[in-house]
Amino acid sequence: MKRNKDLMKKAFSLLFFLLLTLSVFAFTSSDTNVSDTTQVIRLNSAAFNERLTDPDQTVQTASKALNLARQLDYTKGIAEAYRVMGIGLYYKSQVEKAIDSYLNALSYFQKANSKRGMASVYNNIGNLYFDSNDYDRALDYFQRALKMAESMSNDQLIATIGLNLGNIYYRKLQYNQALQYYNKTEAIFEKNKKNLNEDVLLGCIQNKGVIYYHLNQLDEAERLLLQANQKAKSKDLNLRVASIDLTLSALYLSKQQYDVAEKFVKEGFTYSELAKSKRYESDFKYTSYQLEFKRKNYEKALNYLQQIYRQDSLSFYNNVSAQLGILQAKYKQEETQREAEYRQKLDRFLFWASTIVAGLLLVVIALLVGNVKRKARTNRRLTELNAEVSRQKDNVDRINHHLEEIIDERTKDLQIKNKKLSEYSSYLSHQIRGPIATLKGLINLEKEGLVNKEECFNMMDKCVSEIDDKIIDMSDMLHDPERTSLSGS
């Protein structure tokens, strides 16, 4: 009897100690979580603000936020960190990794039932489809995002999505509809200047300038684009400046102001390098080709054309890789979701186990027995998942093998086309050197007085006309892939 009383005293002492420990832990944890979740929000905000100036820093800062949010099991913080990281990767033109981050972000926002977060991710995914020229799917995602944003009356999101919808209709050459969206977005900004991101207004000004350029209203386009250029520079938005410079250089090419166009091409190259944007660097190479061609610097133009051709081949490889990345990202998302669900089950179990241990030792024994059974089921599930992983790995291996075959085929195609390009250059050089040699000979004969001047001038005029015809023919051939035998297989 006495022994039973001693056991009861020990049990009550243990219960009191456990309850005291849990209450202290809960109080301390609560204070820490509030402070740390604020730090996660601050890091995500800083990463987002760096996206147009230094996308590398955006990815690094978002990674810090993600690690901290995971430690705190802060679902919204994890979701936003994935989303901001995806934006940084998007600006770095790493499409596969951006898709992976967006899918993870969408999964966590859905768990947190965050409409604002889901709408933002839908908008981000729409931008990926927009850049891939899949306008119908981009429009679908933008409209989903807009519907959510309007249900929450979130002006920042409505303005951002309106800008993107305007871009869709601009690409579809529906300029009036695009201008309607841009004007709506500007109106929203004017009503809420203090609460909205000024970059949205800057995007509207720039895009309206682009539309007026395509409508051949060059003076109005020039005014808007120069205004946007100055504002972007004042805020150190490197990527935005590069984008504006691209349109300005095209505008001045249309005006035949080649020196001004060259100035904005050089400036755009500089800002593209600062923003580490391979896409804009490639665009400026094409603009440089157009500039040199219009100046009749054909050798430089041909050099830019070769660089662009090589870049296009690399883009093909990246597009194939992006498709493979989508499959890998979906698998990784499912794996992460399973891991999160398992961790949530384990956390719930530990919480209830600790509470029951503090109350009744007998119930603890029953829970331990139940835990063993659950672990057995978990092990069986893990075995099944391992088998599924093996099957998925086999599928990925097959896709990789197919991708290697495609790359080999493209490499052989590039070698053939480079050989043809070299042969074509030799042919053009031979065609032009003939009349030039004749012209030099006539000049020497005229100097020696061995030929009649009038006859000499007639023959020189004929040579110049022949050279002019060859140059025109060269221009036509450069723009006619079938004549240069450089058309794709």
Describe the fold and architecture.
This protein is an all-alpha fold and 489 residues long. The chain has a domain of 114 residues: Serine Threonine Protein Phosphatase 5, Tetratricopeptide repeat (Alpha Horseshoe). It contains 17 helices and no strands.
Q: How many runs of DSSP E, i.e. beta strands? A: 0
Residue share in helices?
over 70%
Based on Cα principal axes, name the global outline.
elongated
Class by SSE composition? mainly alpha
- CATH-defined fold name of the domain at 197-310: Serine Threonine Protein Phosphatase 5, Tetratricopeptide repeat
Major sheet attributes = none
The chain-level mean pLDDT equals 79
- Please give the CATH architecture of the domain at 197-310: Alpha Horseshoe
Q: Count of DSSP helices?
A: 17
Summed up:
With 489 residues, the chain is an all-alpha fold. The chain is built from 17 helices and no strands.
Question: Which key terms come to mind for this protein?
Answer:
elongated, single chain, Serine Threonine Protein Phosphatase 5, Tetratricopeptide repeat, 489 residues, mainly alpha, 17 helices, 89% helix
